[in-house]
Design goal:
alpha/beta; Alkaline Phosphatase, subunit A; ten-stranded mixed β-sheet; 39% helix; binds zinc ion; binds magnesium ion
């Protein structure tokens, strides 16, 4: 047996077991009949990330997160997330599973490796006469929002994905991603704004125009790529809308729909910050999501027939908040060092430029984190910027030079607790079960325990009165292709 074949066989054997225990849908937490469904995706958000932000909020703002309230007053639990051929999912397979009830191979959107396409919840909702929408802090052509509409074997084909978004015509599309619509930036020179303008869309590309945006069909692409991080918006005056502002506008537009709506909202950059092991950016993405969640819970409270679902798609970065000091009693104080972070690592890298001096590196890092790094650490960072990675086990941290930056800033020791007590285990996604909750005035308030990511599709279709089953593929069959 060739090594590759052995690998495939052993993978398929393990996955067969996973597949069978995920196959039976968990009992619905009794959503009741829904007129509107709002699905709020937290990309790359683990239970550890939740605990970190919850403690931060209690200590720095004197109040719990809205997310804490959601877990207490909604129906909450954990969600397992493996994809069709891997115990670790990526965002495209994960969003597909929410949208279709089926697991697929990582890297594709709502299509099996043999080309067979799946039908998404937004297509079903539209066919049932409902308005539809996608809102994200990422490019709207990025995996999580796009996967509820587009079908593509390769999630990176965002120009083609944009064409599919234009063809589908969701009533609300708000996020980043000008570059996939702009004729001056697309490789084929097509203007994808034009067909939407011709079919009556209100279209904007500047954050300051969001407030005044009106119409029953809107496209707001508010940044060339992703919407800048909340931490840079807040502390570095980056021109960007907040997730709450984008969501408020989207809900305002959809609220007028005759027959209700299905809306996907994504806090898409918790994942990006965690990939970069950037604890400050990750915290502020979570806090921006939380402010948005508060708005959505209020909307759900005052709008009968609305069901709000919150779920993370997987963990990213494997952050752990660890105990510090005698009886760990310094832990919370050290965790407060998070409030010294006032810029994202992206901002830091931009300030460093191509060939920074050691003193410039020290100054920029002190500006962004209030930590004065040592001479040795400055050399290490200088080397990393020029591609010379010296941190231990670089293979576990392939995203460079940003992973070196995280390594330099990471924790002190029990004896010398001078650094933030958050360690990241990887720059990749992780396999652990993640937070999820369902909220609405007809939703039963009882824990749903641990569910599979396939379940959400069935909860949504059942609640909308839609009976639909997508075709299945076995992991063994999928492995014949990849
Ligand atoms: Zn993700
Ligand atoms: Mg995403
Ligand atoms: Zn990711």
């Amino acid at each position: 047996m060739k090594r590759k074949d052995f690998f495939k066989t052993s993978m398929a054997a393990g996955l067969g077991t996973m597949f069978s225990f995920g196959a039976r849908p968990s009992p619905s937490p009794a959503l009741g009949k829904a007129r509107n469904i709002i699905f709020f995706a937290y990309d790359g958000f683990s239970w550890e990330d939740y605990s970190s932000a919850q403690h931060y909020s209690l200590r720095n703002f004197g109040r719990p997160l809205h997310l804490h309230k959601l877990f207490k007053t909604g129906s909450a639990g954990s969600m397992e997330s493996h994809s069709l051929t891997s115990m670790v999912t990526d965002s495209s397979a994960a969003t597909t599973t929410w949208a279709t009830g089926q697991k697929i191979v990582n890297g594709s959107l709502s299509v099996y490796p043999d080309g067979e396409k799946l039908t998404t919840i937004l297509e079903l909702a539209k066919a049932a006469g409902k308005a539809t929408g996608i809102i994200s802090t990422t490019r709207i052509t990025h995996a999580t929002p796009a996967g509820w509409i587009a079908k593509h074997i390769n999630r990176r084909a965002e120009e083609e994905i944009a064409e599919q978004l234009v063809e589908f015509k969701a009533d609300v599309m708000i996020g980043g991603g000008i570059r996939a619509f702009d004729p001056n930036q697309r490789s084929d020179g097509k203007d994808l704004y034009k067909p939407l303008l011709d079919s009556g869309y209100s279209i904007i590309t500047k954050p300051e125009e969001l407030e005044m945006l009106t119409g029953s069909k809107v496209l707001a692409t508010l940044h060339n790529s992703h919407i800048p991080y909340e931490i840079d918006r807040k502390f570095r005056n980056e021109a960007a809308p907040s997730l709450k502002e984008m969501t408020r506008k989207g809900v305002q537009v959809l609220d007028g729909a005759n027959n209700g709506f299905v809306l996907l909202v994504e806090a898409g950059r918790i994942d990006h910050a965690n990939h970069r092991n950037d604890a400050g950016a990750s915290l502020w993405e979570t806090l921006a999501a939380d402010e948005t969640l508060g708005f959505l819970m209020d909307y759900t409270d005052r709008t009968p027939g609305t069901v709000l679902i919150m779920a993370s798609d997987h963990g990213t970065g494997g952050a752990s908040v660890y105990g510090v000091g005698e009886r760990y009693r310094a832990s919370s104080n050290i965790h407060d060092f998070l409030n010294r972070r006032t810029a994202s690592f992206d901002w830091v890298m931009e300030q460093l430029g191509e060939n920074p001096s050691e003193s410039h590196i020290k100054d920029v890092l002190e500006n962004a984190t209030k930590i004065r790094i040592s001479a040795g650490q400055a050399v290490m960072m200088k080397n990393a910027v020029s591609g010379n990675i010296t941190m231990p086990d670089p293979a576990a941290y392939p995203r460079q030079p940003i992973a070196t930056l995280a390594y330099i800033l990471k924790g002190g020791t029990n004896e010398d607790p001078t650094r933030l007590n958050i360690n990241f285990g990887t720059t990749q996604h992780t396999a652990g079960a993640v937070p999820a909750a369902v909220y609405g005035n007809k939703v039963e308030v009882k824990p749903f325990g641990i569910v599979d990511n396939t379940d959400f599709f069935y909860w949504m279709t059942e609640s909308l009165g839609i009976d639909f089953q997508n075709p299945k593929m076995s992991p063994e069959k999928a492995l014949e292709y990849y």
